[in-house]
Structures are given as C-alpha cells and as structure tokens.
Amino acid sequence: MDKNSIFAINSDVTHGRGYVYCLQYHIVWCTKYRKKVIIGNIESDVKEHLYRTAEDLDIKILAMETMPDHIHMLIECKPQCRISDAIKVFKGNTARWLFLTHPEIKTKLWGGHLWNPSYFVATVSERTKEQITNYISSQKEK
C-alpha cells in the first residue's frame, strides 16, 4: 500500500476503545400468518417498546416504520453485537409485552405466536443508507 494514500473516514463512524466502526443493518420481520395486527394503539406501543429495547441493547434505531403485518428497521450497533441475538430480543420482548398489554391480539393469531420465526437482514453501506432510509420512511405511502 502506498504510504502517501489518503483515507477518507466516513463521518458516521464510531470510535471504540481500539477500533473504529460503522455497522448498520436493514431488518424486516413479519407477523405470523401475515396477520394485520400492528394497528391503532398497538402500532405506537410497538414502536415505543422497540426504541426502549434498542436502548437497553445499546443499539441506535436510525429509521423505523411499522406496517400492519411487518416491521422495517435500520439500526446501527457495535461490533460486539450479534445481530441474530438482537433480533431475537426485539421480537421476543415485543411479543411478550404486547400479549400482556393487548391480550386481544391472541384472538387473531393461531398458536399464540406473534412473529413469524424468520426475518430479513442486510448490511447497509454508505451508498445505500439514504436509499434504505427513504424506502423505510415511504412504506406508509405504498
């Protein structure tokens, strides 16, 4: 590598002790059977609880939108965060909390499960961050 090379450091990078990072993920998960249960008060409660859970996990939610049958999130986390575990916590805590505060949801679902067990996750680059943010924020318009 050339000693005279200049490296441009993205302004979104975070400095940790001994490392510099910028890890962002686009995450999507759906309700079981794609049932449209994230509506009305439930929608605002889900968002509030996801923000609280993210704070507990030391994860930043950069963008989020809920649809009646799925959730989109753009998050940023530390390298020590295992994304599969974070998603499990997001889904598990939210389901438990919603079933306790909105027991009427159970009548719309078979088997007592709120979320489909699968999810989508993709890494986000500096070039795609704006596109994904716009995509998530325009979900309600579609």
From TrEMBL:
Domain Transposase IS200-like: 20-139
One Pfam family this sequence matches: Y1_Tnp
GO BP field: DNA transposition
GO MF terms, alphabetically ordered: DNA binding; transposase activity
PANTHER family per the UniProt record, alphabetical: TRANSPOSASE FOR INSERTION SEQUENCE ELEMENT IS200 (PTHR33360)
NCBIfam families reported for this sequence: transpos_IS200
Protein name per Swiss-Prot or TrEMBL: Putative transposase
Organism expressing this protein natively: Butyrivibrio fibrisolvens DSM 3071
